[in-house]
Specification:
Blueprint lengths: L20 E2 L19 H5 L15 H17 L4 E8 L2 E8 L7 E6 L13 H6 L2 E6 L22 H15 L4 E6 L1 H12 L4 E7 L13 H6 L7 H8 L1 H5 L3 H11 L11 E2 L3 E2 L15 H12 L4 H4 L5 H8 L11 E6 L13 H4 L3 E6 L5 H4 L1 H14 L9
Parallel strand pairs: 4-5, 4-6, 6-7, 7-10, 10-11
Antiparallel strand pairs: 1-11, 2-3, 3-5, 8-9
Helix pairs in contact: 4-5, 9-10
Length: about 400
């Protein structure tokens, strides 16, 4: 299962957006029993700040601490004041994550996962509404991104970027936070991740919602990404051949080049309207310096993304496009490929990388599936946040989400 970015978004999100969700709802959750109420103690939450996996205080280099402080200052400025940036070690890897706590005892815990090229702050429009609804919210920078470590492959194994590895890391983070059941939300690669966490750790997951990313069940026969694209099965994944090839990380190394790349991936076009990215061919490197500023985010927010990506370069983020064979080998041991918890799938009607047609077979593998659509491109979380938020809010209200921690 491979995923990736869409093309253009044509709305200016710096001025706020209004949008309505389109499409019919197919809700099969009526007979799903509700979980029990959850409580997470303040002591458990406080104890996780800046700890390593042995429970000791983390020792940071001055430069590293300065980067973290800058990120925290940015989050305070642009995110809900209830949200803070935290660090911890998960199975030997340092992760950075956003942590938001509602008033009173949380009704449940929501873990949010981003894709490429994004960060945990990509959920900035959704986190406040989840907090308002009484959910505790956790959003990590994924392996290779932002201030989370980025093992270089080689010499390290591609298994660091596998679904099985991230499932283990999420299990450890839940343990550290003192919660035994979680709701998972994902966009792009984050959507693929939450489906796989549900397969690897069904006892951990109570509900799933994804934006843009359809579920594809594990297969018993392997096909390489090149075979998938050249056979015509997924011509919309042609850009992934470029991402996996190593070409981009050779060409894009400086902070300024990274900023140009992100601008292209978020819909930047030339004065003649030519895009900087195409799903069939990838990033148009020769056009990057000519692109006008994307309408999807402000200059300051794009600067923040460029700074975060410059921490480790783009190599680690692109390893997610090289993990297909590793995931296949791991998943041969899975005995169940049906996801039995309630799932909300929000398709973006104009998403060229993950078109809604790719979701046709989801009902076969997800008995409690709710489908919705929004009239956006791939960056639905930013293009029409109000429409996406309302769909998520209604689904969570209609689907029992009271949980209890047993840790």
């Amino acid at each position: 299962e491979t995923v990736g970015p869409g093309t253009n978004g044509h709305e200016d999100l710096n001025e706020g957006l209004n949008g309505d969700a389109n499409g019919e709802t197919t809700d099969k959750n009526a007979n799903v029993p509700p979980p029990e109420p959850q409580q997470v103690s303040a002591d458990q939450q406080e104890s996780l700040k800046d700890q390593d996996d042995d429970g000791g205080e983390m020792v940071e280099a001055d430069e590293d601490m300065d980067k973290h402080k800058m990120a925290m200052d940015f989050i305070k400025e642009f995110l809900d004041p209830r949200v803070e940036s935290r660090r911890t070690h998960l199975n030997g890897i340092q992760y950075n994550y956003l942590f938001g706590q509602p008033k009173g005892n949380p009704r449940a815990t929501v873990f949010l996962f981003h894709g490429w090229p994004d960060l945990s702050i990509g959920w900035r429009n959704q986190i406040p509404i989840l907090l308002d609804m009484g959910f505790l919210v956790v959003a990590p920078d994924m392996m290779g991104y932002g201030q989370t470590e980025a093992p270089h492959v080689p010499p390290e194994s591609i298994a660091f970027y596998s679904f099985r590895r991230i499932a283990d890391d999420v299990k450890e983070l839940a343990r550290q936070l003192g919660v035994s059941r979680v709701i998972l939300g994902g966009h792009d690669w984050g959507g693929a991740i939450v489906y796989r966490i549900a397969l690897w750790l069904p006892e951990l997951v109570t509900h799933i919602f994804t934006v843009c990313t359809p579920y594809t069940a594990p297969s018993k026969s392997y096909a390489s990404l090149e075979e998938m694209v050249k056979s015509g099965r997924v011509p919309n994944f042609g850009y992934q051949l470029q991402l996996a090839s190593g070409q981009l990380e050779e060409a894009i190394q400086s902070r300024g080049q990274i900023r140009q790349l992100l601008n292209a991936l978020y819909g930047g076009v030339t004065s003649n309207g030519l895009p900087g990215f195409d799903v069939k061919t990838g990033v148009q490197l020769d056009r990057l310096p000519q692109l006008k500023h994307t309408k999807l985010m402000s200059e300051r927010l794009l600067d923040f993304y460029a700074d975060q990506y410059a921490n480790n370069g783009i190599h680690g983020t692109l390893n997610w496009y090289r993990n297909r064979e590793q995931n296949f080998k791991d998943e041969l041991s899975l005995t169940n490929t049906t996801i039995r918890v309630p799932v909300l799938f929000i398709a973006a009607t104009k998403d060229e990388a993950l078109p809604p047609s790719m979701s046709r077979a989801m009902d076969k593998h997800i008995p409690h599936l709710t489908r919705k659509t929004v009239d956006t491109h791939h960056w639905a979380l930013w293009e029409k946040p109000e429409a996406v938020n309302e769909i998520i809010r209604e689904w969570l209200e209609e689907t029992p989400t009271q949980q209890k921690s047993h840790l």
